[in-house]
Predict the 3D structure of the following.
Amino acid sequence: MIEVTPNATRKIRGMLDSDNPGGLLRLGVIGGGCSGLQYKFKFERSARPTDTVFAVDDVRLCVDPKSFQYLDGMTLDYVETVLEQRFLFKNPNADKSCGCGKSFQV
């Protein structure tokens, strides 16, 4: 399962309300980035039949089977400070990640 913190849930809800009302957010992994794999977000109208779909409060997220093997057990957080605003991926499956935290290696 993927845990989504209240801060991340609020941010995702705001993004969905303004860009994709009634939709859901797809979390995924694609090849690339400085560590080999990188995280990906995409708005979707509906999930695919093979997706893992879960809800946190009123926010729905989906993950394809290939990405889920890399994201299972991850915590998605959102931090907002004077210096930055970003999603933070706490992924126990990652052996190492790049300095910005957007890519990782298993």
